[in-house]
Design brief:
Blueprint lengths: L1 E6 L3 H9 E2 L2 E2 L4 E6 L9 E7 L4 E6 L7 H17 L11
Parallel strand pairs: 1-6
Antiparallel strand pairs: 2-3, 4-5, 5-6
């Protein structure tokens, strides 16, 4: 799997480019955490998302990595929900 690293400020555009199909998020996109310094005692984790069928993982780079994988995924979930609420991305179609 190939990894593309993006800065935080590009989450919305990367999500639209890689995770959305026909204006809606592919339900098979998986939120994950990448270990920053594998094998080190003081490691950190970056949030990322895997895009089905492309063999791509999009990693979000910020100033400080998260302490745990769960923390990285939780932060990305929160950020994506805010971007959806602001109309920058579409996570799901609104009920009519």
């Amino acid at each position: 799997m190939s990894t593309i690293s993006i800065p935080v400020r590009h989450i919305a555009s990367a999500w639209r480019e890689y995770a959305q199909r026909d204006g809606v998020t592919d339900p098979n996109v998986e939120l994950v955490a990448h270990e920053v310094t594998p094998g080190k005692s003081r490691t950190g984790y970056r949030p990322a998302f895997k895009v089905p069928g492309t063999h791509l993982s999009i990693e979000v780079v910020s100033s400080q990595p998260h302490r745990t994988p769960a923390g990285a995924i939780q932060w990305l979930t929160w950020m994506l929900e805010r971007l959806h609420d602001n109309g920058n991305i579409t996570l799901h179609r609104e009920a009519s």
